[in-house]
Amino acid sequence: MSEQPTEKQGQYLAFIDIYITMHGRAPAEADLQRFFGTTPPTVHQMILKLEEKGLISRVSGQARSIKLLIDPADLPRLRRRE
Questions:
Q1: Alpha-carbon span 48 to 51, nearest angstrom
Q2: 39-62 burial, b if ≥16 CB within 10 A, otherwise e?
Q3: Which runs of consecutive H residues, i.e. helices, occur in 1-82?
Q4: 5-40 pLDDT, tens per residue?
Q5: What pLDDT shows up at residue 10?
Q6: pLDDT at 3
Q7: Is residue 49 part of a domain?
Q8: Are the beta carbons of 37 and 31 closer than 8 angstroms?
Q9: 13 and 75 in contact (C-beta within 8 Å)?
Q10: Residue 2's pLDDT band (boundaries 50, 70, 90)?
């Protein structure tokens, strides 16, 4: 069973969901980096944490392989970056 996401994790999950809906594929870590205005290591650590919590799955070493394991209806609304 997956853990509940923190507020920040929820924003990452909401972005992933919207990105997949809009583009038909998962975002690259660089897409997350640009949207959230953070560094590559920060994004990578977030992806690892989301995977560890059972909120996403991915294939290590395969680009754009993120899949949500949480119902999109349970995700928060994505907020505009400040």
A1: 5
A2: eeeebeebbebbeebebbebeeee
A3: 7-23, 29-36, 40-52
A4: 999 999 999 999 999 999 999 999 999 999 999 999
A5: 96
A6: 79
A7: yes
A8: no
A9: yes
A10: low
Is 82 within 8 Å of 29 (Cβ atoms)?
Answer: no
Q: Is residue 78 part of a domain?
A: no
Domain that residue 30 falls in: 7-70
Given a contact cutoff of 8 angstroms between Cβ atoms, the answer to whether 2 and 53 are in contact is: yes
Token readout for 67 is 């899949």
Structure-block tokens of residue 21: 């809906």
Q: Please give the radius of gyration of the chain, using alpha carbons only, rounded to the nearest integer.
A: 12
- Percent pLDDT > 70 in the chain is 96
Is position 1 within any domain? no
Q: How many domains does the chain have?
A: 1
What are the φ and ψ backbone dihedral angles of 33, each rounded to 5 degrees?
A: -60, -45
